[in-house]
Write the structure tokens for this entry.
Amino acid sequence: MKFNQATLNKDFVGILPLLDSFSILHRIWLKFVSCNGDYIVTPQKRPQNEYCRFIRSCPEGLKRCRASVTRCMYFEPDKHYLFPCHAGLFILAIPLHSDSNCVGALATGEIRISDFFNQSNLEEKVKDLHLDTKKLLKLYEKIPVIKRDKIMLLGESIHNISNCLIKLGIKSETAKMIGPNIIEDINERNPLIPNNISLEYSHQIVQQASIYIYRNFKKPLSLEEVAKHVHLSPTYFSYLFSQVRNQSFSNFLMETRLEKAKELLETHPNISISEISRIIGYNDSNYFSRVFKKKIGISPSSYRHVTSYRTV
């Protein structure tokens, strides 16, 4: 994506030499991005690599790239982060904050860590983009391999630069672009959301998915819907979710619904079992009762009886 020169003020233009120097020296593509995932300033002396350009030629690929970059805004300031993107590479991110507000981030994609993704993993990640797989693999192999230790040292250097940029006051145009709901959406607390959802940066995607599930479990929620919400393919999202949470998406959804059912059984003695089944997202009350008994050990009516006896 090209940036519009007319929209850039002198502060933005002033960081171009820094972006160019780092991009050429370290064979990366360091850019300044807004809180919405837009590329505000990109290197002029080093083009984006062919692999990423090919991915972004597909509308869904472009959408996922933007979503990956937007993740930079969810991180705490004063640190640098390395996390995988949707297409088998890594992003090094340094979020920029001024006066407690997120104003954007310095981010470099196109990082290929040695021996992290094999061919089969890569094919699985991008197969639903319907691009030429052979061409993708060929372009991927052309990307220079960089050691993780070197990237982390680079991140420290870029972090130091970011502090200088903050002092220069890079905030005017980008501050206008901040979507007030971006940070609120991820931090907004819901009575059903437990406090132990991981806040580690490597778990951000699953955190977003978990919050979405907690807010929508009463609906006929599907794996495909949640995967679309976090801009991942259903296959890769299912894999990532199970790796982070050590359980499948379907099992997590079921447990979420059953926890709500237990709460209703304990606190609302006048609501029927069939109505509770409907409230938590099960249209078939008989199916709900079977699932409840299998997981909890007793039927919903027995659970209600036992818990009501305990409170007497």
The first strand starts at residue 29 and ends at 33. The mean pLDDT is 76. The beta strands are 29-33, 39-41, 81-84, 90-98, 101-113, 145-146.
